[in-house]
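Researcher: Structure prediction, please.
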Amino acid sequence: MVQFGWGMKRISTASAALAASVMLAACATSPPADPAPAAAAAPATGATPVAVGGQQRDLTPDEKKVIVEAVAPSLRNAGAAKYRWTKFPVVPESDTVAYCATVDAQSPHAAYDGRQAYIVDAKVVGGHITAAVMGLIAGGKDASIVGGMCAEHGLNPNNAS
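Model: Predicted structure follows.
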């Protein structure tokens, strides 16, 4: 099972792959009219890549808190989760970016317990993440679905440390 952050619908792996493909196609043909609401409501598939090169930095404690608040509702026993973080560009390319990393946690679905990859849409103000919305989280054999979505943005959640 895969959880999509928008509405937390549970669907099969095959359906998730199909849904991800449809969403990617839709994002390519119909950009949001106003980027501010998109950061608050759009799935991660509509976000700009975090970086296409350039200097990278660690997330600040405040940025990590924003991402934890976006990811935690998708976990069981979120307080025990161990987050692994990927680097973030010193100068992001946009004010709405995709961010991918992993979390070691219990999932509402036992097959996903352990390392789970996630992608979030992040709103950037002044070069720092100020808001985030869950796009997709999956563990077990379905973590590769998230990895594929992250790769579409030039990201790799397995680079998290």
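Model: The helical segments are 13-29, 35-41, 61-71, 143-152.
Researcher: Thanks, that helps.
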